[in-house]
Amino acid sequence: MVDEQLKALLASETIKAMHGRDMTARAAEARTGIAATDFSRSRNCKVDRDTIDRLITILERLDTSVEVDLTVTPRPVVAKAQPALAPSRALVATAAGHNGSRSAPWAQIPPPSVPSSHPTRPMNLLLINPNTSAAMTHSMAEAARSVAAAGTRVTGRQPSFGPASIESHFDEVFGAAGVAEQMRLAQDEGFDAVVIACFGDPGLDAARELTTAPVIGIAEAAFHAASFVATGFSVVTTMTRTCITAERLVQRYGFERTCRGIHGTDIPVLALEEGGEELLARIEAAARQALLADRSGAIVLGCGGMASLCAALQQRLGVPVVDGVTAAVKMAEALVALGLKTEKRGDYAPPLPKPWLGWAAPLGVNLRK
Question: Does 45 lie in the same domain as 139?
Fold first, then answer.
């Protein structure tokens, strides 16, 4: 059986004969890069019976077949007849190509290469867990790696200070400061993108001031992803007291009409590290209630620590379940592939230099570097 490149080449010759175009063999070969398009076009064009017979004969000699549903139309009589198939070197070579003595020249024609406008080097992604739980950092980094492209390297880090979990406004302040600390420490490491792996997106704007790389918060990423697959979604999170944080993010990101409800389970964040069927069942029950009460079509998991539960919940619920960690990773990869960076002309410009005091003084050195 000949491959689609040969079929496309023969098809382009049929088109050439049909239209009487002055097409060189090089131009015909160039058309093999879109084999499916050329071949489907040749099947649906009107050509004369002699051209059809020649095409079928060549294909039969090469031990292949092709569906022919071409409409036969008489060709006008012209003073100087033109050959149905122009003698391009590709077709002239078929006589030598089918008898086994040597392969046809086009058998070695490689598919056309498409030059990439972006480097093929590995992408380096920094995942910052704003709390200080090393176990949760590891879990979220593993979730990120499970969906990352083959060339993406994920590095997970957490602050050197602050709470083990973020479940209050007080916790969030220190979580944001921890994000700023890790961004400053990583400034010279050349990360291509950053993911803030806490559903409150703490320190997101500060992180964007400190780098030109895209910085994605997992709440923002999850809201966008859910809106792609459902007209309305519900958020199922940990502590009920943190629902207000999610509500504010919904308003900030403009999802008031798409987010139909935010539901707390009163499961402590650190309890997610233990996992287990009982924990999964509680979250599943809350999600089912949310789907029914909100008439939603998708569930957004409102904590980065729930990342490992996403697949099981989606299987049980039968609706799209969005984990912000994995969604943020794929969006970060897309932004890097598109060559998009964080703007530096407006409020995401580097912070202004000024004196810093106390334990944070080193973080204020050379901020505009």
Answer: no
pTM: 0.68
Within 8 A by CB and 6+ apart from 218, the residues are 195, 196, 197, 198, 199, 201, 304, 324, 325, 327, 328
Same domain, 57 and 161: no
Question: Could you read off the pLDDT of 268-282 as tens digits, one per residue?
Answer: 999 999 889 999 999
Which conformational region is residue 193 in: left (phi greater than 0), alpha (psi within -120 to 50 degrees), or beta? beta
Let me know if 106 is exposed, middle or buried by CB neighbors in 10 A (0-12, 13-18, 19+).
buried
| Same domain (yes/no): 211, 158 | yes
Whether residue 135 is found in the same domain as residue 26: no
Of 67, 85, 108, the residue at which a domain comes to its end is 108
Q: Are 166 and 198 in contact (CB under 8 A)?
A: yes
pLDDT score for 297: 98
Q: CB 161: neighbour CB atoms within 10 A?
A: 11
Find the radius of gyration of the CA atoms of the chain.
Answer: 30
Q: Is the pLDDT of residue 263 over 80?
A: yes
Residues 136 and 233 in one domain: yes
Has residue 364 been placed in a domain?
Answer: no
Q: Which stretch of DSSP H or E encloses residue 40? A: helix 35-43
Q: What is the pLDDT of residues 185-235, one digit of tens each?
A: 999 999 999 999 999 999 999 999 999 999 999 999 999 999 999 999 999
Contact 210, 184 (CB under 8 A): yes
Residue 117 burial class via C-beta count within 10 angstroms: exposed 0-12, middle 13-18, buried 19 and up: exposed
Query: Could you tell me the residue range of the domain that residue 95 belongs to?
Result: 4-108
Do 90 and 130 fall within a single domain? no
Whether residue 349 is contained in a domain is answered as no
